[in-house]
Amino acid sequence: MRAKIVKFRKSKSRAILAGFGVGKMKHSTDTVTYKSPEAPSSLEFDGQELKMFIHSTAEVSPKAIIGAGCRIWNQAQIREQATLGKQCIVGKDVYIDRDVVVGDYVKIQNQAQLFRGVVIESGVFIGPRVCFTNDNFPRAINTDGTLKNDNEWELELTFVSYGASIGAGAIILPGLKIGAYAMIGAGAVVTRDVADHQLVVGNPARPHGYVCRCGNRLQLNSRAVSWQCKICRENYIFNS
Ligand SMILES: CC(C)(COP(=O)(O)OP(=O)(O)OC[C@H]1O[C@@H](n2cnc3c(N)ncnc32)[C@H](O)[C@@H]1OP(=O)(O)O)[C@@H](O)C(=O)NCCC(=O)NCCS
Ligand SMILES: [Zn+2]
Predict the structure, then answer these.
(1) Which run of H or E residues covers position 219?
(2) 167 pocket-lining for ligand 1 (C-beta < 6 Å)
(3) Please, which residues bridge with residue 95 across strands?
(4) 123: left (phi > 0), else alpha (psi -120 to 50), else beta?
(5) pLDDT per residue over 167-218, tens digit each?
């Protein structure tokens, strides 16, 4: 049995997953849908064959789809219908729930937990012990004291956009969108959407400026119009 209602709390998104085709996220009763990448078990990289590596203690469902060149370390668990793109790194003790969608070149550090309803675009960094949540008002039981089944709770989708980074131990509340190249500070509790390139820290996480694609903080220019990276000199203008 599957959770009946799937909703994306703030914004509606279309997951463009490199190597996957297109995934769709909708309000209402739809679940995440995506095209299978039909990934080969190895691929060419600089003329050399890059093989997938799965540690002997990892538990990968035969119904999961794992992209070429992925490396999956000790005691990681990847559930049925989870999908990983190519060349992802899955650290020790990571849990990837069923139906989770992960793009290409994603790094998932030790003990991170990706519960059902999470969609991760390509190039995302997920720090150690990051926890995604998927039910904002969880209850184990119904009002009559019986155990809730899979059909009796609300699954909320979380979407992490291209190139974003999530610091160690951050907790991401359900139904949120984290923008492209956003950065979440270590230990943050994210309760609101995060804009593209935005840095947020703390509990609750609050905006703390912006970061460049390269990962360095951006400086506001003297006229307070645009932001510049002092390392790679890229300029940005943000709407908010
Ligand atoms: C958020 C972050 C990017 C900021 O780095 P920074 O710009 O060098 O920050 P600074 O050390 O100059 O700190 C600036 C201020 O923010 C505070 N701050 C920094 N990181 C913070 C965090 N994660 N949570 C709360 N406050 C934080 C500092 O205490 C400081 O406050 P103050 O001005 O009142 O003294 C960084 O601290 C961070 O958390 N990075 C993620 C690290 C991580 O988890 N990596 C995972 C791989 S191991
Ligand atoms: Zn830069």
Answers:
(1) strand 218-220
(2) yes
(3) 77, 113
(4) left
(5) 999 999 999 999 999 999 999 999 999 999 999 999 999 999 999 999 999 9
Q: Is the CB of residue 186 below 6 angstroms from any atom belonging to ligand 1?
A: yes
pTM: 0.85
- Measured CA to CA in angstroms, residue 104 lies from 18, 19, 74, 148, 215 at distances of 6, 7, 21, 35, 19
Q: Evaluate: CB of 91 within 6 angstroms of ligand 1.
A: no
**Given phi > 0 = left and psi -120 to 50 = alpha, else beta, which region is 29?**
alpha
Number of H helices, E strands in the chain: 0, 31
Ligand 2 centroid to residue 235 C-alpha, Å: 9
Which residues, in sequence order, are bridge partners of residue 222? none
Q: Which amino acid makes up residue 184? A: I
Q: Whose CA is nearest to atom 44 of ligand 1?
A: 167
Best residue among 166, 201, 208 to mutate for probing ligand 1, ranked by most atoms within 8 Å of CB: 201
Q: Is 217 in the pocket of ligand 1 (CB under 6 A)?
A: yes
CA 34, 40, 46, 49 dihedral sign is positive
- Measured CA to CA, the distance from residue 144 to residue 151 in angstroms comes to 16
| Cβ of 189 less than 6 Å from ligand 1 | no
